[in-house]
Design brief:
Layout: E1 3-7, E2 12-17, E3 23-27, H1 39-42, H2 46-70, H3 82-91
Antiparallel strand pairs: 1-2, 2-3
Helix pairs in contact: 2-3
Length: 102
Amino acid sequence: DGSDFEADGDARMSLSNDDDGAVRVSTLNLVDLAGSESVRHTGATGDRQKEGGKINQSLLTLSRVISNLGEKNKHINFRDSKLTRILQPSLSGNARMAVICC
């Protein structure tokens, strides 16, 4: 049928169709945000408390980035967290994104 399918180690897949030369690239990012609960409710201390704070900061940064993208701001600061740096290719450009929270 003229289609080629490729997958590499970082869960990116390319499906190309030789008829029109179009290439569609898909990326699947699975992010475990366990530990983001409020310290008041979990009673976490020490390293667990620090980890929870960093996860919450990353979530706040992600919400700011998504908000800025929705407002079509010219400057989007993806550098404020590791999470947004990792997700930048999926969040910017000609991309469609779905977020599923469980």
